[in-house]
């Protein structure tokens, strides 16, 4: 897993709104890990694609363009890693 995909492998304590948002963690599991466990591979890839598209769609609408573009890239990188594992 690449540095962009920290999720459950993240070891730091500082807040990171792109790679490790506090509001997506409950106990010791992050939302993204729970979602992956609840979906088929195809469904999870569709979820990642949709989120990448969502952040691209609205990046210039909320006043946080750089952060939304980073989030879009995070989901796209994660999608790339997931599809790479299909081979």
Give a verbal description of the structure.
The protein is mainly alpha-helical. Residues 1-11 have low confidence and may be disordered. The protein has a two-stranded antiparallel ribbon with strand order 1-2. The chain has helices spanning 31-38, 41-58, 65-84; strands at 25-26, 29-30. This is DUF3310 domain-containing protein.
Strand content: under 5%
Can you summarize the main beta sheet?
2 strands, antiparallel
End-to-end gap: 15 Å
DSSP helical segment count: 3
Spatial order of the strands forming the largest sheet: 1-2
What is the succession of H and E elements?
EEHHH
Number of strands: 2
Describe this protein with a few key phrases:
87 residues, mainly alpha, two-stranded antiparallel sheet, 3 helices, globular, disordered N terminus
